[in-house]
Every structure is written in C-alpha cells, then in structure tokens.
Amino acid sequence: MGIKKNYRIFNFKILLLLAGFSTFSHSQQTKIQGKVTDTLQNPLPYANILAIPKADDQDIKFAITEKDGSYKLGLIKNQTYELTVSYLGYKPQTLTITTTNQDLIKNFVLKENPDQLDEVNIKYTPPITVKKDTITYDVTKFVTGEERKLR
After folding, report:
1. Three-state DSSP class for 88?
2. What pLDDT sits at residue 22?
3. How far apart are CA 47 and CA 68, in angstroms?
4. Separation between Cα atoms, residue 78 and residue 2, nearest integer Å
5. pLDDT of residue 117
6. ∠ at Cα 100 (97, 104), nearest 5°?
C-alpha cells in the first residue's frame, strides 16, 4: 500500500511540474490574430502568414488562415518580426512588427496581382505513338544523330 501512495504522490508532482512549464512557456508568448481578406472584403482561406524573426537564434513561425480568413499566431514577447502574408493570385504584403506584452490584432487586405498568367497552352506531339499493335514514329523528331537507330 505504501508503494501505491508514493506512486500517486510522484504522479501528482509530475503533473504540477508540467502545469508549471506550460504556464511558463505560455507567459513567454504573445498572440497576434486577425483576418486576411481581398479588396472586396471576401475572406481568403488558406492564405500563408510567415513571421521571420530579426534575431538569428529564433525560429520562424507560420500560420494558415481558416475558411473564414482568420488566423492566430503565437510569437515570442519583445522580439521584432517581419510578417509576410501571401495568397496565390494576390500581391504579398509585408509588415515589420515588434511584439510586446499585449496581444495584437492585425487584419490584412491583399490586392490582386495583375501580372498573373491567365492560361498556358502547351502544344506537344509525341515522337512515338502506339495504337493497338501499330507503332508510328515521327521521323522529323529524330534528326540530331544522338538518338538510337530505328530498324
């Protein structure tokens, strides 16, 4: 019976220790949140938010927006970050922020990128076509002399 009691006390101490670590690590972070929309206030789901710290010893943080365009990002307090928001078909937006003890709310409005390609057409005819039991070769494709000889 003494072993069970010691085991329960040990488990309780470990639980308290883990709770203390989670509180300590949470107190070292500040939260930035907001929404990413286009110029017509439509939410942009699955947009990328990248936080690159100015200090070399810190890790890069990132988030992806939800279906409603909202995001949450945990950053270390009293650090400077370059925040970049990007979405396919829109111009990326970059902002430099310095975190404090207060949580931040930052909304982004992305503008469409007019330099996007509309459509790409690829015209390709294969040099060899196989139809049932017939193989057809396009001899104009075999003119460099580096290909294998056909018999």
Report:
1. coil
2. 45
3. 11
4. 49
5. 72
6. 65
CA–CA separation, 75 and 100 (whole Å): 10
Segment (H or E) for 5: helix 2-27
12/18 Cα distance (integer angstroms): 10
Paired with 71 in beta bridges are 34
Per-residue pLDDT tens for 25-58? 445 789 999 999 999 999 999 999 999 999 888 8
Neighbours of 62 (CB within 10 A): 13
Which amino acid makes up residue 92? P
Nearest to 35, CA basis, from 110, 106, 92, 90:
106
By the 8 A CB rule, do 83 and 93 touch? no
Q: Write out residues in the chain with pLDDT < 50, as ranges.
A: 1, 21-26
| Integer Cα distance of 96 and 83 in angstroms | 6
- Three-state secondary structure of 7-47: HHHHHHHHHHHHHHHHHHHHHCEEEEEEEEEECCCCECCCC
